[in-house]
Amino acid sequence: MARGFGITALLLAGLFAAPAGARADELADFEAAREAYDEQRYADTIARLEAMVGGEVPAIQNEVLVLESRKYLGAAYIWEGRREEAETQFRLLLQDDETYQVDPLAFPAAIVDVFREVRQRYLQERADAERERRERLERLNRERIQRMLRQQERMSRLEELATEQVVEERNSRGLALVPFGVGQFRNGNRRLGITLAIGEAALVAGSLAFWGWHRWLRGQVDEVTPAERDRFERLERSARIGNQLFTALFATVTLAGILEAQINYVPVRTETRERPLPDDLPEVEPPELELEVGVGPGSAELRLRF
C-alpha cells in the first residue's frame, strides 16, 4: 500500500503541469493498467498500456507517465513470455532517461535482471557510438589539418617559384679561348675559374718582375767595376731564366685552361635569380590552431579548434 501511494504521489507531481482533462484521463488509464498488473491480469495490462505507449511515439504526453507505463508494459511482456517486446519497451524507456533504475524491492528479480541487462547493453552501445563519433571527428580534424598544411606548403612553394627567375645565357667558344679562367666562369665552373685567374695572374706578375730585374741588370753591367761585372752577369742570366720559366709556365697553364674550357664547353648556361614580389600582394597567414584538453572522472578529452 505504501509503495502504491508513493508511485501515485510521484505521478500526481508529474501531472500537475498538464491540462486538467489530460491529467485525469492519462492518470486514470495508467491506474487501471497498474491495477490489472497487480492482479496479474497481464493480457489486460498489455492491452491498456499498448494503447498508451505501444509505439515509439507514445499516445500520452506526460513524461513521468510514459516512463512508468513502459516499465509496467515491459514487465507484463516478460510475464507473458514476450521478452523481445519487453526489451524494446525498456530500451525506449532508457532513451528518454538513461539514468532510470527499476526498484528491486518493487519488482521481482526476473524483471530487474532483464532491465539491467538491457540497460547495460544500451549504455555500452551509447558509449561505443560516442567513441565512434569522437574518433570520426578526430579523423576529420586530422584530415582538415593535413589539407590546410598541404595548402600552406603549396602556397609557400608557389611563392618560392614566383620569387625565382630562371635565366638562360648562351655561351661562346670564342670566350672560352680567353685566359685567366674566363672559359671556366662561362661554363659555370667558378672554383676552377678563380684558381686559374689567380694562378695565371701570379705567373704574369712573376714573369714581369724577372723581366724588369733583367732589364735593370743589363743596364748596370757596363757601369759597374770589372771586379763586380761577373756577379752582375750571373744575376742577369738568373733573371733571364726566371723570366723565361715564368713565361713558359704561364703559357702552359693558359693552354691547359683553354683546353679544359673547350672540352667541358657548356652551350647554354642557366642561372636562377631572385625576383621580388609586388608590395601589394597579401601575405598568406598560417592557420591558427587552439588546443583544449579536458579531464573528467575516468576520461580525458582533446579538442582542436580552428
Number of helices: 9
Overall pLDDT level: 81
Shape assignment: rod-shaped
Q: How many separate structural domains? A: 2
Secondary structure class reads mainly alpha
Q: Percent of residues in helical segments? A: 55-70%
Largest sheet: 2 strands, antiparallel
Q: How far apart lie the N and C ends?
A: 60 Å
Oligomer: single chain
Strand content: 5-15%
Low-pLDDT regions: 1-18
Q: What is the number of strand segments?
A: 4
Give the ordered list of helices and strands: HHHHHHEHHHEEE
Strand order in space, largest sheet? 1-2
Alpha-carbon Rg, integer: 51 Å
Q: Could you describe the 3D structure shown?
A:
It is a single chain. By secondary structure, the chain is mainly α. It has 2 domains: about 1-130; about 170-270. The chain is built from 9 helices and 4 strands. The chain has helices at about 1-15, 20-40, 40-55, 65-80, 85-95, 110-160, 180-185, 190-220, 225-265; strands at about 165-170, 270-275, 290-295, 300-305. The chain has a two-stranded antiparallel ribbon with strand order 1-2. A two-stranded antiparallel ribbon has the order 3-4. Strand 3 and strand 4 form a beta hairpin. Helix 2 runs antiparallel to helix 3, helix 2 packs parallel to helix 4 and helix 5 (about 85-95) crosses helix 6 (about 110-160).
TL;DR?
This protein has 306 residues and is mostly helical.
